[in-house]
Structure formats: C-alpha cells, structure tokens
Amino acid sequence: MNDRSESQTHPSSSLVASLGVLTLVSGFVDAVSFLSLGHVFTANMTGNVVLLGFAVAGAPTFSATASITALAAFVCGTILCGRLARRIPAHRPLMTVVLLFEATLTAVAAIIAAAEGVPGLSSGWPKLAVIALLALGIGARNSAVRWLRVPDMTTTVLTTTITSLVSETSLTGGMDPNLVKGLTSVGSMFVGAIIGAALTIHVHPALPLGLAAVIVVSLAAFFARNTDAQLGIA
Fold first, then answer.
1. DSSP classification of residue 151
2. In the chain, N or C terminus with fewer CB closer than 10 Å?
3. Mean of the pLDDT values across residues 94-113?
4. What is the pLDDT of residue 201?
5. Owning domain of residue 46
6. How far apart are CA 115 and CA 61, in angstroms?
7. For residue 187, what pLDDT is reported?
8. Residues 122-136: pLDDT tens digits?
9. Over 50: is that where the pLDDT of 209 sits?
C-alpha cells in the first residue's frame, strides 16, 4: 500500500490520461452549470468564491444561494471521501468507489435536466438539486484524486498547474519536470469546456451530463481493472 504522504513522481501514462479525462469531465459540468444554471460552477470552487463575492456585492445575475449550495455540497463530498478513505486505504479501490458515486450523481442530474428542460433549470429546486448533485460528486472525486498526489493534476483547477508549468519550464532555466501532465490538464479542461458548452448551447444540457456520467463509469472500470503497478502507484 502506498504512503499517501508521498507524491507519485512516476505515474503511468494511463494514469495521467485518466486524470486528463476527469479534467475534461470537469469542463463539461462547469459549462453546463455556468451556462444553464446561472453564474455558478460545480467543479471550480475558486470561481464560486469569487462569484459569491459578486452576489454579496449586489451584482446582477449572480446568485448567492447557488454559489453557497455548490460550495456546501462540494465540502460535503470531500468530507464523505475523507471518511471513506479511512475505511478504504488503498488508492485504486477508493478511486473506483468514488468515481461510481460521482457517475451516479451525475446521471441523476442528467435525468433531472432532461425532465425539467432548459427553462426548468433556471430556478427553483431543479436548479439547486443539479448544482448540489454535481458539486457533491466532484467534491468526493477531487478529494480522492488528491490522495493520488500526481503533481499538477487536480482535475478541477488550473491556477497552480499553470504557475508550475511556466515557472519550471526551460524558459526560466527549469527542467520541465511536469510538462506533459500540466499540458494534459490545461488542454483537457479547455476541450471539455468547448464540448460541454457546444452541447449545452446547441443541443441540451442533459447531453453533456449524461456523457460525463458514462465517461466516469468507464474510468471507474479502468481503476478497478488495473493493478497498482500498471498505474505507477505501487
């Protein structure tokens, strides 16, 4: 079993790719939440803190209730994963369980979105329910990914990743130690945002959520099927 205090300095390419796909999913759900649920994020909690500040200051079209719901659900997800990690100390089983949990919540959110339609998601319980479901799942996932300790791959935020990517690049005299992982994270988030926004705007917000649920289930199977050695976390 791995010591969770140590970073995974040599993760396998398949592990890096899987975390990149999870980052892609974060782009999906943030596109849906920001474009269909008002100005709120369900993966990027840094953004929610800023949006909450805008709402408190009285800026129009920003909802303090939506931001608080997302933040509270995300925190609950991290607490849930933290308690689960005490019962499931190994990385792979923890990731498998948490990803199945996230996929289930995302699928329920997709069903609500499909049932309510776009107008129905703009206010009331459907809006808050979808926000809470998505943020709860991603909060748990973010906590589980944190235990993997793969540098520059958090799957939800990029500020630290971009800082590390630039500050350690050969342009500053560095050795580009995490170049591939950093570029994977940035590129995945960007592509996820494009796909999520395009499907939300031109088709229906339920579609990217349903697609996200399928992807996350597939990743749960990936973690269940591979060994620690294959993932580079042995």
1. T
2. N
3. 97
4. 94
5. 21-227
6. 24
7. 94
8. 788 999 999 999 999
9. yes
Q: How far apart are CA 77 and CA 100, in angstroms?
A: 13
How many domains are there within the chain?
1
Inter-axis angle of helices 124-148 and 13-36, nearest 10? 160
Distance between CA atoms of residues 70 and 124, nearest Å:
15
Element (H, E) at 127: helix 124-148
| Chain centre to alpha carbon of residue 105 | 13
What's the rounded Cα separation, in Å, for the pair 179 and 55? 37
Q: Does 7 map to a domain?
A: no
> Does any domain span residue 187?
yes
* Residue 98 to residues 3, 88, 163, Cα–Cα distance (Å): 19, 11, 28
Spell out the alpha helix ranges (H) of 9-90.
13-36, 45-56, 64-87
- Global model pTM greater than 0.85: yes
